[in-house]
Amino acid sequence: MTTLTFRCLTARTHSALLPLAMLSLVLAEGVLAQGTSTPDYDCRALANAHERLACYDDIFGAPRLNEFSATGVQSASGKLVKEKLVGRDTLVRERIEREKRLFEYPFTIIPHKPSYILPYTNNAKPNNAPYSALVDLSAEDQRLDNAEAKFQVSLKVPLAQDFLVDGSTLWAGYTQLSLWQVYNSEASAPFRETNYEPELFWAFDTGGEWAGLPLQNFSLGFSHQSNGRGELLSRSWNRIYANFLLADDNWAVGFKPWYRIPEDEADDDNPDIDDYLGYADFTLAYKWEGLTFTTLLRNNLRSSNNLTSGNVTMSFPLPGRLSGYVEYVNGYGETLIDYNHRNQRIGIGVVLNDWY
Known about the structure:
With 356 residues, the chain is α+β, with helices and mostly antiparallel strands. The protein has two domains: 11-81, no CATH class; 91-353, Outer membrane phospholipase (ompla), Chain C, CATH 2.40.230.10. The chain has four helices and 15 strands. A twelve-stranded antiparallel β-barrel has the order 4-5-6-7-8-9-10-11-12-13-14-15. A two-stranded antiparallel sheet has the order 1-2. The protein is globular and about 75 Å long. The two termini are 44 Å apart. Mean pLDDT is 79; it is low at 1-40 and 63-84.
């Protein structure tokens, strides 16, 4: 019901305004009646946030299709008609849009790759070989334990918006991965390996569609990765890469080919790293009822001595703001010190932020 209150001025003014007021009341009732008519379905019953927003927008007249809405166009009869727009209705799209809103704040730091803590992992066959020239591995207290902790922190900051091209962003990223022999008290529980990876990349937001494909984002970047060690334990490499991110509904696919920048032979600590890690990462992520599954695959593309590496993770809800995290690794390049050693590791812990 709509109530209109008129202030009584004089009898004469009241008489003059009464027909106009009644006409306004009739028009208002007509507009409201049209806007509050019962839709074909209850908006509150829609589980998908984008569809629910489109439903309410259809009722109250707000624009229904913006850069991160998924469905909802109005037919000639005024009914809501569901229309699938390629790549728009995705959790990846939500994350991209959230990041855009954070650009407005100074000193913005945004999660990049997953950040997690695995207090316990078990490696079936630890790689003792790199340390053989430094310690006596025949002594039991100098050998690596199968059990160790593993954690990763990954952040990025926007450096410039609309960098050279409208809608693009220049980013700086940093990822640090550590393996800690925390249970190896006989060897003084050392951090046996830490990898540092600063990177600079130029990202293009495609808006969720490119050539009919659900391409959410495309980026070009430069990455330096090293373990910060000297002499025999030093490992490092530099790469330029492209990264394609496709996503629709609750799935996402990433394809990241790279080219290693050549180094002087005398300075190259790992000249054969391509023989083990190949030339690209292929990542698949899927979210289902609160669970997120990811798979990362690599292959060296050799006809002889063909090597494939895989990393499978699952995150699951926990009380509070954290999620549980399980990881299984089988392959090469988990860390730089192990680039030519096949690790078989399983670990459990918590993840602070997932891919999306």
